[in-house]
Amino acid sequence: MTRFHLGRWLRRAGSLAICLILWQIASSLRLNLGIVTFENVPLPVDVVSAALEFLRSPKFFAHISSSLERVLAGFGIAAVIGIGLGLVIGRSRWLGDFLQAPLELLRPIPAVAWIPLAVLMFSSSELSMIFITFTGALFPILLNTVHGVESVDPRLIASARSLGSTRTAMLLEVIIPGAAPNIVTGLVIGMGTSWFCLVTAEMIAGQFGIGYYTWESYTLQNYPEIIVGMILIGLFGMGSSALLRAAGAALLPWHTKDSK
Amino acid sequence: MTTHQRSFRAATGRIEANHVSIRLGRGSSAFEAVTDASFEVSPGEFVCLLGPSGCGKSTLLGALAGHIKPAAGVLSVDGQPVKDPHPERGIVFQHHTLFPWKNARDNVAFGLKMRGVKRRQRRLEAEKMLDLVGLNGFAGRYPGQLSGGMQQRVEIARVLVNQPRLLLMDEPFGALDALTRLRMQELLLDIWEQFRKTILFVTHDIDEALLLADRIIVMQAQPGRIHEEISVPFERPRMTGIIASGEFMRLKQHCLHLLHRDRPGDTLPRLSPLGL
Ligand SMILES: Nc1ncnc2c1ncn2[C@@H]1O[C@H](COP(=O)(O)OP(=O)(O)O)[C@@H](O)[C@H]1O
Ligand SMILES: [Mg+2]
After folding, report:
1. Which of A26, A77, A220, B135 suits a disulfide with A38, CB 3.0-4.6 Å?
2. Quick one: average pLDDT of B63-69?
3. CATH class of B1-88+166-276
4. Which residues does chain B have within 8 Å of residue A181's beta carbon, measured at their own beta carbons?
Protein backbone atom coordinates (compact mmCIF):
# COMPACT_ATOMS: atom_id res chain seq x y z
CA MET A 1 0.00 0.00 0.00
CA THR A 2 2.62 2.55 1.09
CA ARG A 3 5.04 1.24 -1.52
CA PHE A 4 2.43 1.80 -4.15
CA HIS A 5 1.88 5.36 -2.98
CA LEU A 6 5.61 5.99 -2.81
CA GLY A 7 5.97 4.78 -6.37
CA ARG A 8 3.24 7.11 -7.47
CA TRP A 9 4.81 10.11 -5.81
CA LEU A 10 8.20 9.26 -7.28
CA ARG A 11 6.65 9.07 -10.72
CA ARG A 12 4.99 12.46 -10.26
CA ALA A 13 8.15 14.10 -8.97
CA GLY A 14 10.07 12.49 -11.80
CA SER A 15 7.81 13.91 -14.50
CA LEU A 16 8.08 17.35 -12.92
CA ALA A 17 11.87 17.05 -12.85
CA ILE A 18 11.95 16.03 -16.52
CA CYS A 19 9.89 19.10 -17.44
CA LEU A 20 12.31 21.31 -15.57
CA ILE A 21 15.33 19.71 -17.21
CA LEU A 22 13.83 20.08 -20.68
CA TRP A 23 13.08 23.70 -19.91
CA GLN A 24 16.62 24.25 -18.67
CA ILE A 25 18.08 22.66 -21.79
CA ALA A 26 15.80 24.52 -24.19
CA SER A 27 16.41 27.93 -22.71
CA SER A 28 20.13 27.54 -22.11
CA LEU A 29 20.58 26.45 -25.74
CA ARG A 30 18.31 29.34 -26.81
CA LEU A 31 16.47 26.79 -28.89
CA ASN A 32 14.72 28.19 -31.94
CA LEU A 33 12.12 25.90 -33.46
CA GLY A 34 10.92 28.37 -36.06
CA ILE A 35 7.36 28.82 -34.86
CA VAL A 36 8.36 28.99 -31.20
CA THR A 37 11.58 30.24 -29.77
CA PHE A 38 13.18 29.92 -26.36
CA GLU A 39 15.54 32.84 -26.99
CA ASN A 40 13.78 35.12 -24.49
CA VAL A 41 12.69 32.40 -22.07
CA PRO A 42 14.51 32.78 -18.76
CA LEU A 43 16.42 29.94 -17.16
CA PRO A 44 14.78 28.02 -14.29
CA VAL A 45 17.60 29.15 -11.99
CA ASP A 46 16.87 32.78 -12.79
CA VAL A 47 13.22 32.19 -12.12
CA VAL A 48 14.00 30.72 -8.72
CA SER A 49 16.16 33.63 -7.71
CA ALA A 50 13.53 36.08 -9.00
CA ALA A 51 10.94 34.23 -6.96
CA LEU A 52 13.06 34.41 -3.80
CA GLU A 53 13.60 38.09 -4.31
CA PHE A 54 9.91 38.70 -4.90
CA LEU A 55 9.01 36.73 -1.79
CA ARG A 56 11.22 39.00 0.28
CA SER A 57 10.03 42.26 -1.24
CA PRO A 58 7.21 44.24 0.39
CA LYS A 59 5.34 44.27 -2.92
CA PHE A 60 4.74 40.54 -2.58
CA PHE A 61 2.21 40.93 0.19
CA ALA A 62 0.46 43.80 -1.59
CA HIS A 63 0.06 41.82 -4.81
CA ILE A 64 -1.02 38.62 -3.16
CA SER A 65 -3.43 40.20 -0.74
CA SER A 66 -5.18 42.31 -3.35
CA SER A 67 -5.66 39.26 -5.58
CA LEU A 68 -6.92 37.20 -2.68
CA GLU A 69 -9.33 39.90 -1.60
CA ARG A 70 -10.77 40.17 -5.08
CA VAL A 71 -11.18 36.42 -5.43
CA LEU A 72 -12.73 36.09 -2.01
CA ALA A 73 -15.18 38.91 -2.67
CA GLY A 74 -16.13 37.87 -6.20
CA PHE A 75 -16.22 34.18 -5.48
CA GLY A 76 -18.00 34.70 -2.15
CA ILE A 77 -20.78 36.74 -3.74
CA ALA A 78 -21.03 34.23 -6.59
CA ALA A 79 -21.30 31.38 -4.09
CA VAL A 80 -24.10 33.06 -2.15
CA ILE A 81 -26.07 34.12 -5.22
CA GLY A 82 -25.31 30.98 -7.23
CA ILE A 83 -26.34 28.57 -4.49
CA GLY A 84 -29.35 30.65 -3.42
CA LEU A 85 -30.65 31.13 -6.95
CA GLY A 86 -29.84 27.53 -7.82
CA LEU A 87 -31.90 26.22 -4.92
CA VAL A 88 -34.86 28.39 -5.85
CA ILE A 89 -34.70 27.55 -9.54
CA GLY A 90 -34.26 23.86 -8.83
CA ARG A 91 -37.29 23.82 -6.55
CA SER A 92 -39.67 26.05 -8.45
CA ARG A 93 -40.66 25.14 -11.95
CA TRP A 94 -42.22 28.57 -12.43
CA LEU A 95 -39.08 30.50 -11.54
CA GLY A 96 -36.97 28.07 -13.49
CA ASP A 97 -39.01 28.75 -16.63
CA PHE A 98 -39.01 32.46 -15.92
CA LEU A 99 -35.24 32.77 -15.59
CA GLN A 100 -34.28 30.23 -18.21
CA ALA A 101 -34.11 32.58 -21.23
CA PRO A 102 -31.87 35.31 -19.72
CA LEU A 103 -29.61 32.75 -18.09
CA GLU A 104 -29.21 30.71 -21.27
CA LEU A 105 -28.30 33.91 -23.09
CA LEU A 106 -25.77 35.10 -20.50
CA ARG A 107 -24.16 31.75 -19.90
CA PRO A 108 -22.12 31.40 -23.11
CA ILE A 109 -20.62 34.90 -22.74
CA PRO A 110 -17.14 34.38 -21.32
CA ALA A 111 -16.44 36.50 -18.26
CA VAL A 112 -13.50 38.05 -20.08
CA ALA A 113 -15.91 39.51 -22.63
CA TRP A 114 -17.50 41.43 -19.79
CA ILE A 115 -14.35 43.40 -19.05
CA PRO A 116 -14.99 46.48 -21.25
CA LEU A 117 -18.60 46.81 -20.14
CA ALA A 118 -17.68 46.18 -16.51
CA VAL A 119 -15.07 48.94 -16.64
CA LEU A 120 -17.72 51.28 -18.02
CA MET A 121 -20.39 50.24 -15.54
CA PHE A 122 -18.54 50.26 -12.25
CA SER A 123 -17.28 53.37 -10.53
CA SER A 124 -13.93 51.84 -9.57
CA SER A 125 -11.68 49.40 -11.36
CA GLU A 126 -11.59 47.42 -8.11
CA LEU A 127 -15.32 46.81 -8.33
CA SER A 128 -15.16 45.94 -12.00
CA MET A 129 -12.51 43.31 -11.31
CA ILE A 130 -14.56 41.83 -8.50
CA PHE A 131 -17.51 41.76 -10.87
CA ILE A 132 -15.50 39.85 -13.49
CA THR A 133 -14.39 37.34 -10.87
CA PHE A 134 -17.98 37.00 -9.76
CA THR A 135 -19.23 36.41 -13.31
CA GLY A 136 -16.62 33.75 -13.85
CA ALA A 137 -17.63 31.81 -10.75
CA LEU A 138 -21.38 32.34 -10.91
CA PHE A 139 -22.42 30.00 -13.71
CA PRO A 140 -20.55 26.88 -12.67
CA ILE A 141 -21.95 27.30 -9.15
CA LEU A 142 -25.48 28.09 -10.28
CA LEU A 143 -25.75 25.32 -12.87
CA ASN A 144 -24.27 22.66 -10.61
CA THR A 145 -26.61 23.66 -7.80
CA VAL A 146 -29.66 23.47 -10.05
CA HIS A 147 -28.52 20.11 -11.33
CA GLY A 148 -27.94 18.91 -7.77
CA VAL A 149 -31.37 19.99 -6.59
CA GLU A 150 -33.07 18.39 -9.57
CA SER A 151 -31.25 15.12 -9.07
CA VAL A 152 -32.35 14.64 -5.45
CA ASP A 153 -34.18 11.31 -5.48
CA PRO A 154 -37.94 12.03 -5.54
CA ARG A 155 -38.48 9.03 -3.27
CA LEU A 156 -36.41 10.75 -0.60
CA ILE A 157 -38.65 13.78 -0.91
CA ALA A 158 -41.74 11.58 -0.75
CA SER A 159 -40.37 9.78 2.32
CA ALA A 160 -39.58 13.04 4.05
CA ARG A 161 -43.09 14.34 3.36
CA SER A 162 -44.58 11.16 4.77
CA LEU A 163 -42.44 11.56 7.87
CA GLY A 164 -43.98 14.95 8.50
CA SER A 165 -41.24 17.16 7.10
CA THR A 166 -41.83 20.88 7.29
CA ARG A 167 -40.94 23.08 4.31
CA THR A 168 -37.83 24.42 6.00
CA ALA A 169 -36.71 20.96 7.03
CA MET A 170 -37.24 19.76 3.47
CA LEU A 171 -34.84 22.40 2.24
CA LEU A 172 -32.27 22.15 5.03
CA GLU A 173 -32.30 18.43 5.70
CA VAL A 174 -33.18 16.89 2.37
CA ILE A 175 -32.63 19.19 -0.61
CA ILE A 176 -29.41 20.89 0.45
CA PRO A 177 -27.60 17.78 1.68
CA GLY A 178 -28.86 15.92 -1.39
CA ALA A 179 -27.51 18.60 -3.70
CA ALA A 180 -24.34 19.18 -1.65
CA PRO A 181 -21.96 16.99 -3.66
CA ASN A 182 -22.94 18.84 -6.83
CA ILE A 183 -22.71 22.18 -5.07
CA VAL A 184 -19.16 21.38 -3.96
CA THR A 185 -18.27 20.42 -7.53
CA GLY A 186 -19.70 23.74 -8.70
CA LEU A 187 -17.68 25.63 -6.10
CA VAL A 188 -14.45 23.88 -7.06
CA ILE A 189 -14.96 24.62 -10.75
CA GLY A 190 -16.10 28.16 -9.91
CA MET A 191 -12.97 28.74 -7.88
CA GLY A 192 -10.84 27.78 -10.86
CA THR A 193 -12.71 30.02 -13.27
CA SER A 194 -12.71 32.93 -10.85
CA TRP A 195 -8.90 32.86 -10.64
CA PHE A 196 -8.72 32.63 -14.37
CA CYS A 197 -11.00 35.62 -14.82
CA LEU A 198 -9.36 37.64 -12.08
CA VAL A 199 -5.91 37.34 -13.59
CA THR A 200 -7.21 38.46 -16.96
CA ALA A 201 -9.04 41.38 -15.42
CA GLU A 202 -5.97 42.41 -13.42
CA MET A 203 -3.85 42.45 -16.54
CA ILE A 204 -6.21 44.95 -18.08
CA ALA A 205 -7.58 46.99 -15.23
CA GLY A 206 -5.46 46.30 -12.17
CA GLN A 207 -2.91 48.21 -10.16
CA PHE A 208 -1.93 45.40 -7.86
CA GLY A 209 -2.45 41.67 -7.93
CA ILE A 210 -0.68 38.64 -9.34
CA GLY A 211 -2.10 39.14 -12.82
CA TYR A 212 -0.98 42.73 -12.83
CA TYR A 213 2.46 41.72 -11.57
CA THR A 214 2.83 39.23 -14.39
CA TRP A 215 1.82 41.72 -17.04
CA GLU A 216 3.92 44.51 -15.51
CA SER A 217 6.94 42.21 -15.55
CA TYR A 218 6.42 41.75 -19.26
CA THR A 219 6.19 45.48 -19.96
CA LEU A 220 9.27 46.10 -17.81
CA GLN A 221 11.07 43.23 -19.55
CA ASN A 222 11.61 41.36 -16.27
CA TYR A 223 11.25 38.01 -17.96
CA PRO A 224 11.94 35.68 -15.00
CA GLU A 225 9.24 37.52 -13.04
CA ILE A 226 6.66 36.65 -15.70
CA ILE A 227 7.17 33.01 -14.88
CA VAL A 228 7.14 33.68 -11.15
CA GLY A 229 3.71 35.29 -11.65
CA MET A 230 2.47 32.38 -13.71
CA ILE A 231 3.58 29.85 -11.15
CA LEU A 232 1.97 31.81 -8.33
CA ILE A 233 -1.32 31.94 -10.25
CA GLY A 234 -1.15 28.19 -10.75
CA LEU A 235 -0.33 27.51 -7.12
CA PHE A 236 -3.07 29.73 -5.75
CA GLY A 237 -5.68 28.32 -8.14
CA MET A 238 -4.70 24.79 -7.28
CA GLY A 239 -4.45 25.49 -3.56
CA SER A 240 -7.84 27.12 -3.26
CA SER A 241 -9.55 24.35 -5.23
CA ALA A 242 -7.87 21.73 -3.08
CA LEU A 243 -8.94 23.60 0.04
CA LEU A 244 -12.54 23.62 -1.16
CA ARG A 245 -12.43 19.97 -2.07
CA ALA A 246 -11.06 19.08 1.35
CA ALA A 247 -13.69 21.21 3.07
CA GLY A 248 -16.35 19.50 0.97
CA ALA A 249 -15.08 16.06 1.91
CA ALA A 250 -15.02 17.03 5.60
CA LEU A 251 -18.56 18.38 5.44
CA LEU A 252 -19.96 15.45 3.48
CA PRO A 253 -18.58 12.42 5.31
CA TRP A 254 -21.34 10.10 4.06
CA HIS A 255 -20.49 10.92 0.48
CA THR A 256 -16.87 9.91 0.69
CA LYS A 257 -17.55 7.02 3.04
CA ASP A 258 -19.96 5.06 0.91
CA SER A 259 -18.22 5.76 -2.34
CA LYS A 260 -15.13 3.96 -1.06
CA MET B 1 -40.45 -2.37 24.37
CA THR B 2 -42.09 -2.38 27.73
CA THR B 3 -43.42 1.13 27.26
CA HIS B 4 -45.57 -0.03 24.38
CA GLN B 5 -48.80 -1.82 25.01
CA ARG B 6 -48.85 -5.47 24.21
CA SER B 7 -51.10 -6.95 21.62
CA PHE B 8 -54.71 -5.91 21.76
CA ARG B 9 -57.27 -5.26 19.08
CA ALA B 10 -56.22 -1.93 17.64
CA ALA B 11 -58.87 0.73 17.55
CA THR B 12 -57.33 2.80 14.79
CA GLY B 13 -56.14 2.11 11.29
CA ARG B 14 -59.32 1.35 9.37
CA ILE B 15 -58.88 1.85 5.63
CA GLU B 16 -61.80 2.40 3.31
CA ALA B 17 -61.50 2.71 -0.45
CA ASN B 18 -64.69 3.59 -2.24
CA HIS B 19 -64.76 3.35 -6.05
CA VAL B 20 -61.28 4.83 -6.30
CA SER B 21 -59.87 5.59 -9.75
CA ILE B 22 -56.42 7.05 -10.17
CA ARG B 23 -55.07 8.70 -13.30
CA LEU B 24 -51.37 9.07 -14.00
CA GLY B 25 -49.46 11.10 -16.58
CA ARG B 26 -50.35 14.40 -18.18
CA GLY B 27 -52.24 15.47 -21.27
CA SER B 28 -52.44 12.97 -24.08
CA SER B 29 -50.35 10.37 -22.26
CA ALA B 30 -52.67 10.36 -19.23
CA PHE B 31 -54.24 7.03 -18.45
CA GLU B 32 -56.10 5.30 -15.68
CA ALA B 33 -53.66 3.28 -13.56
CA VAL B 34 -56.29 2.12 -11.06
CA THR B 35 -59.93 1.68 -12.01
CA ASP B 36 -62.81 1.62 -9.60
CA ALA B 37 -61.11 0.01 -6.63
CA SER B 38 -63.17 -0.64 -3.52
CA PHE B 39 -61.96 -2.45 -0.44
CA GLU B 40 -61.78 -2.22 3.34
CA VAL B 41 -59.10 -3.06 5.84
CA SER B 42 -59.97 -3.41 9.51
CA PRO B 43 -57.90 -1.94 12.31
CA GLY B 44 -54.87 -4.09 13.01
CA GLU B 45 -55.33 -6.28 9.98
CA PHE B 46 -52.42 -7.43 7.82
CA VAL B 47 -53.40 -7.21 4.16
CA CYS B 48 -51.27 -7.93 1.12
CA LEU B 49 -51.85 -6.34 -2.26
CA LEU B 50 -50.76 -8.97 -4.74
CA GLY B 51 -50.54 -8.48 -8.47
CA PRO B 52 -48.29 -8.56 -11.52
CA SER B 53 -46.01 -5.63 -12.06
CA GLY B 54 -47.73 -2.64 -13.63
CA CYS B 55 -51.16 -3.40 -12.18
CA GLY B 56 -51.21 -0.24 -10.08
CA LYS B 57 -50.18 -1.51 -6.64
CA SER B 58 -47.67 1.26 -6.04
CA THR B 59 -50.12 3.79 -7.39
CA LEU B 60 -52.80 2.71 -4.96
CA LEU B 61 -50.34 2.75 -2.07
CA GLY B 62 -49.04 6.18 -3.12
CA ALA B 63 -52.60 7.47 -3.08
CA LEU B 64 -53.17 6.08 0.42
CA ALA B 65 -49.96 7.73 1.57
CA GLY B 66 -51.31 10.99 0.18
CA HIS B 67 -48.75 11.50 -2.57
CA ILE B 68 -51.20 11.00 -5.44
CA LYS B 69 -54.76 12.33 -5.63
CA PRO B 70 -57.43 9.92 -6.89
CA ALA B 71 -59.37 11.18 -9.89
CA ALA B 72 -62.58 9.71 -8.52
CA GLY B 73 -63.82 7.99 -5.39
CA VAL B 74 -62.81 8.38 -1.78
CA LEU B 75 -59.90 6.97 0.22
CA SER B 76 -60.24 7.34 3.94
CA VAL B 77 -58.45 6.26 7.08
CA ASP B 78 -60.50 6.07 10.27
CA GLY B 79 -63.22 8.05 8.54
CA GLN B 80 -60.91 10.91 7.53
CA PRO B 81 -60.42 11.36 3.78
CA VAL B 82 -56.73 11.13 2.83
CA LYS B 83 -55.48 14.50 1.59
CA ASP B 84 -51.76 14.92 2.12
CA PRO B 85 -48.87 12.78 3.29
CA HIS B 86 -48.90 12.39 7.05
CA PRO B 87 -46.71 10.52 9.55
CA GLU B 88 -49.82 8.64 10.69
CA ARG B 89 -49.60 6.79 7.38
CA GLY B 90 -46.00 5.61 7.27
CA ILE B 91 -44.67 4.38 3.95
CA VAL B 92 -41.70 2.08 3.35
CA PHE B 93 -40.30 1.70 -0.14
CA GLN B 94 -38.19 -1.02 -1.66
CA HIS B 95 -34.80 0.54 -1.03
CA HIS B 96 -32.57 3.59 -1.01
CA THR B 97 -34.96 5.98 0.69
CA LEU B 98 -33.03 6.49 3.90
CA PHE B 99 -31.29 9.86 4.05
CA PRO B 100 -27.73 8.95 3.07
CA TRP B 101 -26.35 11.94 5.00
CA LYS B 102 -27.91 10.94 8.31
CA ASN B 103 -26.77 8.03 10.39
CA ALA B 104 -29.26 5.34 11.38
CA ARG B 105 -30.19 7.11 14.61
CA ASP B 106 -30.85 10.46 12.95
CA ASN B 107 -32.81 8.80 10.17
CA VAL B 108 -35.08 7.21 12.73
CA ALA B 109 -35.29 10.41 14.75
CA PHE B 110 -36.32 12.51 11.74
CA GLY B 111 -40.06 12.25 12.38
CA LEU B 112 -39.57 13.11 16.05
CA LYS B 113 -37.51 16.13 15.09
CA MET B 114 -40.33 17.31 12.84
CA ARG B 115 -42.67 17.04 15.79
CA GLY B 116 -40.35 19.19 17.89
CA VAL B 117 -39.19 16.46 20.28
CA LYS B 118 -36.07 17.50 22.20
CA ARG B 119 -32.72 16.16 21.12
CA ARG B 120 -32.04 13.93 24.12
CA GLN B 121 -35.48 12.41 23.97
CA ARG B 122 -35.15 11.86 20.23
CA ARG B 123 -31.91 9.95 20.64
CA LEU B 124 -33.42 7.81 23.35
CA GLU B 125 -36.54 6.92 21.41
CA ALA B 126 -34.67 6.37 18.15
CA GLU B 127 -32.24 4.01 19.79
CA LYS B 128 -35.07 2.12 21.45
CA MET B 129 -36.65 1.66 18.01
CA LEU B 130 -33.36 0.51 16.54
CA ASP B 131 -33.10 -2.07 19.32
CA LEU B 132 -36.59 -3.23 18.51
CA VAL B 133 -35.67 -3.95 14.88
CA GLY B 134 -32.50 -5.71 15.96
CA LEU B 135 -30.01 -2.97 15.17
CA ASN B 136 -28.54 -2.49 18.61
CA GLY B 137 -25.12 -0.91 18.16
CA PHE B 138 -25.60 0.34 14.62
CA ALA B 139 -27.05 3.75 15.50
CA GLY B 140 -23.97 5.65 14.36
CA ARG B 141 -23.67 4.01 10.94
CA TYR B 142 -24.59 5.75 7.73
CA PRO B 143 -26.98 3.92 5.38
CA GLY B 144 -24.10 3.35 2.96
CA GLN B 145 -22.39 1.33 5.68
CA LEU B 146 -25.38 -0.95 6.31
CA SER B 147 -26.45 -4.06 4.40
CA GLY B 148 -29.71 -4.03 2.42
CA GLY B 149 -31.57 -5.90 5.17
CA MET B 150 -30.29 -3.52 7.85
CA GLN B 151 -31.35 -0.55 5.78
CA GLN B 152 -34.88 -1.93 5.57
CA ARG B 153 -34.85 -2.41 9.34
CA VAL B 154 -33.96 1.25 9.75
CA GLU B 155 -36.78 2.15 7.36
CA ILE B 156 -39.26 0.23 9.48
CA ALA B 157 -37.96 1.82 12.68
CA ARG B 158 -38.12 5.26 11.11
CA VAL B 159 -41.79 4.81 10.31
CA LEU B 160 -42.75 3.07 13.57
CA VAL B 161 -41.26 5.80 15.73
CA ASN B 162 -44.08 8.07 14.54
CA GLN B 163 -46.66 5.66 16.00
CA PRO B 164 -48.57 5.51 12.73
CA ARG B 165 -52.12 4.28 12.34
CA LEU B 166 -51.01 2.22 9.40
CA LEU B 167 -47.93 0.95 7.66
CA LEU B 168 -47.86 1.10 3.90
CA MET B 169 -45.12 -1.11 2.51
CA ASP B 170 -44.22 -1.18 -1.17
CA GLU B 171 -42.31 -4.40 -1.87
CA PRO B 172 -40.09 -3.59 1.10
CA PHE B 173 -38.13 -6.84 0.88
CA GLY B 174 -38.11 -7.10 -2.90
CA ALA B 175 -34.44 -6.23 -3.24
CA LEU B 176 -33.17 -8.63 -0.57
CA ASP B 177 -31.70 -12.09 -0.98
CA ALA B 178 -33.95 -15.02 -0.06
CA LEU B 179 -32.55 -15.68 3.39
CA THR B 180 -32.49 -12.05 4.50
CA ARG B 181 -35.98 -11.68 3.13
CA LEU B 182 -37.20 -14.57 5.27
CA ARG B 183 -35.66 -13.02 8.39
CA MET B 184 -37.24 -9.70 7.59
CA GLN B 185 -40.63 -11.32 7.14
CA GLU B 186 -40.30 -12.92 10.56
CA LEU B 187 -39.22 -9.62 12.08
CA LEU B 188 -42.16 -7.81 10.54
CA LEU B 189 -44.64 -10.39 11.83
CA ASP B 190 -43.05 -10.15 15.24
CA ILE B 191 -43.39 -6.38 15.27
CA TRP B 192 -46.91 -6.60 13.98
CA GLU B 193 -47.88 -9.03 16.76
CA GLN B 194 -46.54 -6.53 19.27
CA PHE B 195 -48.03 -3.33 17.91
CA ARG B 196 -51.03 -4.50 15.91
CA LYS B 197 -50.75 -1.70 13.42
CA THR B 198 -52.74 -2.08 10.25
CA ILE B 199 -50.35 -3.13 7.50
CA LEU B 200 -50.99 -2.85 3.78
CA PHE B 201 -48.15 -4.71 2.12
CA VAL B 202 -47.53 -4.68 -1.61
CA THR B 203 -45.86 -7.68 -3.18
CA HIS B 204 -45.78 -9.69 -6.36
CA ASP B 205 -44.49 -12.73 -4.48
CA ILE B 206 -47.26 -15.24 -3.75
CA ASP B 207 -45.35 -17.06 -0.99
CA GLU B 208 -44.68 -13.80 0.77
CA ALA B 209 -48.33 -12.80 0.63
CA LEU B 210 -49.49 -16.17 1.96
CA LEU B 211 -46.93 -16.17 4.75
CA LEU B 212 -47.71 -12.68 5.97
CA ALA B 213 -51.29 -11.73 5.32
CA ASP B 214 -54.64 -12.21 7.01
CA ARG B 215 -56.14 -11.40 3.67
CA ILE B 216 -54.83 -10.99 0.13
CA ILE B 217 -56.27 -8.50 -2.31
CA VAL B 218 -55.39 -9.71 -5.78
CA MET B 219 -55.07 -7.08 -8.50
CA GLN B 220 -54.94 -7.39 -12.25
CA ALA B 221 -53.43 -5.18 -14.93
CA GLN B 222 -54.86 -3.37 -17.96
CA PRO B 223 -56.82 -1.80 -16.53
CA GLY B 224 -55.38 -1.92 -13.00
CA ARG B 225 -58.19 -3.19 -10.82
CA ILE B 226 -59.04 -5.36 -7.84
CA HIS B 227 -59.82 -8.84 -8.93
CA GLU B 228 -60.47 -10.99 -5.89
CA GLU B 229 -59.97 -11.13 -2.14
CA ILE B 230 -58.63 -14.26 -0.51
CA SER B 231 -58.56 -14.80 3.21
CA VAL B 232 -55.57 -16.70 4.54
CA PRO B 233 -56.58 -19.13 7.28
CA PHE B 234 -53.23 -20.16 8.79
CA GLU B 235 -52.89 -19.79 12.51
CA ARG B 236 -50.52 -17.31 14.06
CA PRO B 237 -47.78 -17.11 15.00
CA ARG B 238 -46.94 -18.66 11.67
CA MET B 239 -44.05 -21.00 11.16
CA THR B 240 -42.28 -21.10 7.83
CA GLY B 241 -43.25 -24.78 7.86
CA ILE B 242 -46.74 -23.93 6.60
CA ILE B 243 -45.20 -23.55 3.14
CA ALA B 244 -45.25 -27.35 2.87
CA SER B 245 -48.89 -27.75 3.91
CA GLY B 246 -51.59 -28.82 1.50
CA GLU B 247 -53.73 -25.79 2.17
CA PHE B 248 -50.79 -23.52 1.34
CA MET B 249 -50.29 -25.35 -1.96
CA ARG B 250 -53.94 -25.05 -2.81
CA LEU B 251 -54.00 -21.29 -2.15
CA LYS B 252 -50.78 -20.82 -4.04
CA GLN B 253 -52.18 -22.66 -7.04
CA HIS B 254 -55.23 -20.45 -6.91
CA CYS B 255 -53.14 -17.25 -6.78
CA LEU B 256 -50.91 -18.45 -9.61
CA HIS B 257 -53.98 -19.11 -11.66
CA LEU B 258 -55.26 -15.58 -10.98
CA LEU B 259 -51.95 -13.92 -11.78
CA HIS B 260 -51.40 -15.90 -14.93
CA ARG B 261 -54.51 -14.60 -16.53
CA ASP B 262 -52.48 -11.49 -17.17
CA ARG B 263 -50.29 -12.55 -20.00
CA PRO B 264 -46.76 -12.76 -18.64
CA GLY B 265 -45.12 -11.86 -21.97
CA ASP B 266 -45.80 -8.14 -22.12
CA THR B 267 -43.37 -6.58 -19.71
CA LEU B 268 -44.16 -3.05 -18.67
CA PRO B 269 -41.74 -0.17 -18.34
CA ARG B 270 -40.52 0.13 -14.77
CA LEU B 271 -41.98 3.52 -14.14
CA SER B 272 -43.25 4.56 -10.83
CA PRO B 273 -46.34 6.57 -10.01
CA LEU B 274 -44.51 9.05 -7.81
CA GLY B 275 -42.44 9.92 -10.84
CA LEU B 276 -39.56 8.03 -9.32
N1 LIG C 1 -44.84 8.44 -13.66
C2 LIG C 1 -45.57 7.65 -14.47
N3 LIG C 1 -46.05 8.14 -15.64
C4 LIG C 1 -46.77 7.37 -16.45
N5 LIG C 1 -47.08 6.09 -16.21
C6 LIG C 1 -46.64 5.55 -15.08
C7 LIG C 1 -45.87 6.30 -14.16
N8 LIG C 1 -45.58 5.49 -13.13
C9 LIG C 1 -46.15 4.30 -13.39
N10 LIG C 1 -46.79 4.31 -14.56
C11 LIG C 1 -47.56 3.19 -15.13
O12 LIG C 1 -48.69 3.03 -14.28
C13 LIG C 1 -49.02 1.67 -14.17
C14 LIG C 1 -49.12 1.28 -12.72
O15 LIG C 1 -47.84 1.43 -12.13
P16 LIG C 1 -47.50 0.93 -10.65
O17 LIG C 1 -48.54 1.42 -9.72
O18 LIG C 1 -46.11 1.31 -10.38
O19 LIG C 1 -47.61 -0.65 -10.78
P20 LIG C 1 -47.08 -1.77 -9.79
O21 LIG C 1 -46.59 -1.12 -8.54
O22 LIG C 1 -48.25 -2.66 -9.58
O23 LIG C 1 -45.99 -2.48 -10.51
C24 LIG C 1 -47.97 0.91 -14.96
O25 LIG C 1 -48.54 0.59 -16.21
C26 LIG C 1 -46.83 1.87 -15.09
O27 LIG C 1 -46.12 1.62 -16.27
MG1 LIG D 1 -44.61 -1.03 -7.73
Report:
1. A26
2. 95
3. alpha beta
4. none
